[in-house]
Amino acid sequence: MPSPLYMGARPRPICSRYLEDGSRCANSTGHADGWCRQDGCPGFTRSSQGEGVEKTYNYSCLVNPAPCPLDSYDASTLDVSRRDLDRFLEAHGTGEVKAEAQIRTLAEDLVNERRWSANEDGWVRLAKVGFLLVVSPDLFTVVDYRTSHRERTYAQVRVGVPSRFRHERRKRRVRRIARRRHEAFAAVGATYSYDVEQRLLRVVFSGGRRFEIEGRRPVSTMSAGEWETVVDRINAELGIVLTADAEHAQAIPS
Q: How many angstroms separate the CA atoms of 223 and 105, rounded?
């Protein structure tokens, strides 16, 4: 009779990915790449985004109506060169087994979507949404892996997981705009506050003059158009020489 140890269901492994706040996901997963793909888990392979920014170029092949030299089975059984395995690990982390599984999944998807081209020497190029694979003429080995995505894997990009680099760029931009608009008010001797409940921007100028405007967001998150409306109202009602452009504001003391 089998030992009771082997009679129960085999426990599923725990997701190997990280949440946006850097904590480890605790969901179980049956996917070969270690990502559970459950709600709330964006699937980052590292706890933090690291240094640098994502590259701006984008690898892509147009849909090719001609039959691809590789079929789905060929793609799913490709070997991966040591150099390109290391290149994948450098970009995304994960272990070698998971890395090979993800490269083969990428190849299979691009073959199925006919995102390929080939040169006269038989080198096959598969590319889409910033991911590139080059397959040797004998169709056995991935000899080049490249990506313009610094931290996200193909599976993450395919389902629309946003990059943490974009979030950080946006936060830096908001801070920069807030600082410039704060300096604009300070240059004309003004302080401001925002009442969240009443959605009311209050500006107090030296000498006791006050300005209020309703229905606006905080100064740091106002659009360029909203900010220009505030500036125009201040200039018209109080005679303050305050200027703004589409990106930021500068104050010119009167």
A: 41
Please, are residues 248 and 181 in contact by the beta-carbon 8 Å criterion?
Answer: yes
Count of beta carbons in the 10 Å neighbourhood of residue 142? 25
Sequence-distant (6+) residues with CB within 8 A of 165 are 49, 53, 54, 150, 151
**Integer Cα distance of 167 and 202 in angstroms:** 29
Contact 90, 83 (CB under 8 A): no
User: What is the phi/psi pair of residue 115, to 5°?
Assistant: -95, 75
For the chain, the C-alpha Rg in angstroms (whole number) is 27
Q: Highest mean pLDDT: which of 5-9, 140-144, 176-180?
A: 140-144
Residue 200 sits at φ, ψ, to 5 deg, of -125, 125
**3-class secondary-structure state, position 4:** helix
Question: Which amino acid does the sequence have at 71?
Answer: D
Annotate 192-218 with DSSP letters as a single string: EEEETTTTEEEEEETTS-EEEEES---
Phi/psi for 58 (5° steps) reads -135, 120
pLDDT per residue as tens digits for the range 189-247: 778 888 777 778 888 877 777 878 776 677 777 777 788 887 888 777 777 666 654 33
Residue pointed to by tokens 């199925």: 112
CB 148 within 8 A of CB 163: no
